[in-house]
Structures are given as C-alpha cells and as structure tokens.
Amino acid sequence: DTSLAEVNSFSTSVPISPSSMINQYKFEDEPELRDLFITVDDPESHITAIETFITYRVVTKTSRGEFDSSEYEVRRRYQDFLWLKSKLEEAHPALIIPPLPEKFIMKGMVERFNDEFIETRRKALHKFLNRIADHPTLTFNEDFKIFLTAQAWELSSHKKQGPGLLSRMGQTVRAVASSVRGGVKNRPEMFIEINDYVETFSQKINVLDKIAHRIYKEEREYFNEMKEYGPIHTLWSASEEDIADSLKGVASCIDKCCKATERRMAGLSENLLPILHEYVLYSEILMGVLKRRDQIQGELDSKVDALANKKTEKDPFSEEIGKLEDKVECANNALKADWDRWKQNMQFDMRSTFTNMAENNLRYYEECLATWESFLASQTVDLHVEEDSEDRP
Asked: Where does the record place the PX domain (predicted)?
C-alpha cells in the first residue's frame, strides 16, 4: 500500500508530536457529498408484563426526491434492525451487508441494560444505518426507506407482508441442499482468492480483537491499582516530616498519570475496540456472502447436470439455465464491486484507527514523561538548596 509507505518514510525534519503527525497523513477516499443523514440517539427503556426492551430514536434528514419529507423521526428497537438486515440480505444476497452488534451481552459487560452496554449498542446501530446510507445500492432499498420513515404501526404492518413460513422454509431447504451437494464446480479464481483472503483476515482480526480486549482489561487493572497507589504516599507524608514534600510530589505525579491512563483507556474503548470487533463481525458476514454466491452457482450447476442427463424436453431446461446464468453473472459482478469497495473502506478504517491509537499513545507517554521530569527537576533544585545551606558557616 503506497500510502502506508509514504507514512513510514516521513522526513526527520517533521516535528514529532501527535498534533503535527496527524496532519502529515493524507487519507484517500474523502467522503463525497451526501444527501442522506441518519442519527441514532435517545435510548429509552420500556418495561411490559412480558418483556423489557430499549428503543432508539432514528432521525433522518434528506434532500432526495423519493422521500415525501426532508426530515423524519421514528423509534426503533433492536428487533427492527434485525428485520432490516434480513430484508437486505434477502434482496441483495451477493452484497456485503454491514454487521449489527450482537443481540446478547458483549465482552466486558455485566448487565444487559447498563448504561455502557446501551451506549455501545447505540453507536453500533448508528454506524450500521450510516454504512447502509453510504452504500451505492443498499441506500436505495425500499425496506430501508420504510425503516427510516414508517411509524411503528406502519412498520409492523409492512413486516407482516413479508414472505410466509413456507417460503422461508423453501429458502432454507435450498440452502441446506446446496451445502450437502458440496463445493461448487469451477468456482472462478477470483472468488477462490477472496475466500482465502477472508479466512486469513478472520484469523488475524480475531486474534487482534482478543489481544486488544486483554490489553484493555490489564490497563483497567493497572488504573485501579494506581488509584490506590497515589493516596498511600499522601498518608505516609503525614508521618515523615523531612520527606513530606517529596512524598506529596510523588502522589501528585501518580494522580496525573492515573488521569492520563483513564483518558488512554477511553481512547481504546471508543476508537480501537469497536473497529476491531466490527471487522470480526464483518469476517463472518463475508463468509456468508461467499456461501450465498456459491449457492447461486450451485443452482446453475445442478440444472446443467440435469440437462446433461436428460435426453428429451431440453428447451424448458435451457431457458431456465439461461436465467440462472444471468443470475450468477449478476451476483458475481455485484460481489466483485462490493468486495473492492469493502476492502477500500476496511483499509481506510484500519489506517485511521491505528493512527489514532498511535497518537493517543504518544500523547499519554509524553504527558507522563513531562509529569515525572517536572518532579525530578523540583527535587534537584531542593537538593541544591539544602547543599548550599549546609556549606554556609
């Protein structure tokens, strides 16, 4: 990646500080002019005799002509987001649908509906909708428009118009039958390469995700220890008059480093951890997209085999095979384009995330270093003053 090479070869004349370094990076893929803006906020708890759930306000502002108004405000629960995702997968089986946060407790969360969990989910849902809004195809999906604009009762009515149970069972049976038949014949080389890439990517991103969460856990333990470590020096200073100032100085330094550590942890939890976990979920979605593409090709392969074994009445089969060939070609072209787009976005996200992490770490260590250097300087001055007073007659 040439942009990464340029970053690694910056001139030594560039001042080394977080604020100056970030300005040296010129990321590609600047966002284009947008005509659809979505915000997910204001989580609200609902308690009924049957269940407890959270709804989120979804505010949409748009200048598109196909919308009847320029602004909408609706409330949606998690199940509504799941419905939208399933409808997008159904309508666009060869496209990479953005991931949703997991339904149940996420890593590090103790309670399902505590404030931290709700805020983490809100951010993920906000990103989910905006990923769709930025997608050149998904953004014009009719179910997506209904999700953004319909009131609760209208959305409920629309959901009931979806495919019936027998239709969904038929789709499941076809998917299982396709998997039982085994791998598709003559899978295009490009999709073999994509499959290999996704398998490697999945392994690496899962390891990164686990290590990052372990680092965050250790950082929190270190932070909790520091909160106890500093006050001990202050208490000790009450019984050590001769070194009381030094002990209080150490306590002050520890307190400042403790606050810097807390800010660093916030940077990890807000910038690094969500991105890594999102792409863990993306790796699972990519596997699913590749399987759906294979199922489409598998249908074509089975019809071609059936035609080869059939000696009469080939015309109906030939017509059906022609339609399936078109379907496979459309799926291949859609996935190729979406794969390039996804990979470009992934690289941009990773560069941005790791740059923010580097900047956050630099700021943290510079702050801690400056704190302890200031303390050392004050102690050196005090020592010189004491030596001068002792040398006087």
From this structure: 34-155
- Name the nearest CA neighbour of 274 among 347, 365, 208: 208
Does residue 300 form part of some domain?
A: yes
Separation of alpha carbons 199 and 332, rounded Å: 19
Q: Which residue has the higher pLDDT, 250 or 315?
A: 250
The pLDDT score that the predictor gives to residue 112 is 54
Structure tokens at 209: 């995700």
Query: Residue 313 — pLDDT band, cuts 50, 70, 90?
Result: low
The pLDDT of residue 49: 80
Show the tokens assigned to 291.
């399987």
- How far is the C-alpha of 178 from the C-alpha of 299, rounded, in Å? 8
Are 52 and 45 in contact by the 8 Å Cβ rule? The answer is yes
- Domains contained in the chain, number: 2
CATH of residue 45 = 3.30.1520.10
**Co-location of 117 and 244 in the same domain:** no
272 DSSP assignment: I
Residue 285 sits in which domain range? 183-392
**Cα–Cα distance measured from residue 382 to residue 387, given in angstroms and rounded to the nearest whole number:** 9
| CA dist., res. 338 & res. 13, Å (int) | 41
The three-class DSSP label of residue 39 is: strand
